[in-house]
Each structure stands twice: as C-alpha cells, then as structure tokens.
Amino acid sequence: MKPLSPNKVLSKLDVTLITRHGLWLLTTSRELFVSFIDFPQFRNVPSIKLKHVAQLHSDILYWPDLNVEIPVKYVRCFPLVSPKPHPSRRSGRQAKTRSATV
Fold it and tell me: Could you tell me the pTM of the whole model?
C-alpha cells in the first residue's frame, strides 16, 4: 500500500485514552473504540504511534506511522449525546407497597 498524500486527510482525530483493552478516539460527532482483541496489530505499538491517527474519509481511519487503514464500520461507535431518559414507570404493585409502608 502506498502512502497517502497529506492533502487527502479529512481530519485529525483525538486519541482520548489508551488502555490495555484498546484505544478511544474522538471525532466531531462520536466516540470510537478500537479494541485490541479485534485489532491485535495495535497491542504492542508505542502510544506515540497510536496517537498519530487521521480520518481519511468519514468511514476510514488511518495511522500513517503504521500504514494501517481501518473502516469505521469495524470499530465500536458511541454517540456523544446521551439518549433522552425515559420516565420511570412503577408497576401497580410497587405503588401499593410503597404507599402501604409510608
């Protein structure tokens, strides 16, 4: 695979955390987790090389020091916003028990 020119890089990503399980990447819209189980080639790589990552397209991650490309669809994605909380619903039995003890 030939190296890509710098003008083909869409955006740089922030590596927010590297653990023994994998690394967390922050994009503008979501957080990604690259598992060392799924991608063992990253397990023994120095953290300085893991931190040098870019997003080539909206769906490709690229580590130029390692010459590794990974499609985003193969990593775990997490939204940066939490879903709306659902109102808690009590069953009729819980409501009766609570009112009986009060």
Answer: 0.65
